[in-house]
Specification:
Helices cover about 40% and strands about 15% of the residues. It has five helices and four strands; from the N terminus they run βαβαααββα. The chain has a four-stranded mixed beta sheet with strand order 2-1-3-4, sandwiched between helices.
């Protein structure tokens, strides 16, 4: 199992607690301290089966400041923005042996 998170995120910390109680072997990565490369993020997005814009945190300050919802960005441009501004990425991201869980719903799914 792998979890990608932000250490100051309440939802991420709840997910980390749930995972700790499962006593599973977990690879943890704070992607704010150890950022994603563009290739890593592309791989994760592909695993979700979703488009990059579906994994954006639309209530995030950066999303609003960059006016992302009003502009037409390509998938590649959105991924570049996500790498540059990791706050835009839904979190946590939890990868189990047979599924990937993203965002607040990850807590219900794991």
């Amino acid at each position: 199992m792998e979890i990608y998170y932000k250490s100051t995120c309440n939802t991420c910390n709840k997910a980390l607690d749930v995972i700790a109680r499962m006593k599973e072997d977990v690879k943890k990565r704070d992607y704010f301290k150890d950022p994603f490369s563009e290739e890593e993020l592309k791989k994760i997005i592909k695993m979700t089966g979703k488009k990059p814009h579906e994994l954006l945190r639309k209530h995030d300050k950066t999303y609003k400041e960059l006016n992302i919802g009003e502009k037409k960005y390509s998938d590649s441009q959105i991924i570049k923005l996500m790498v540059k501004y990791p706050n835009l990425i839904m979190r946590p991201i939890i990868i189990t042996k047979d599924h990937i869980h993203v965002g607040k719903s990850a807590l219900d799914e794991i």
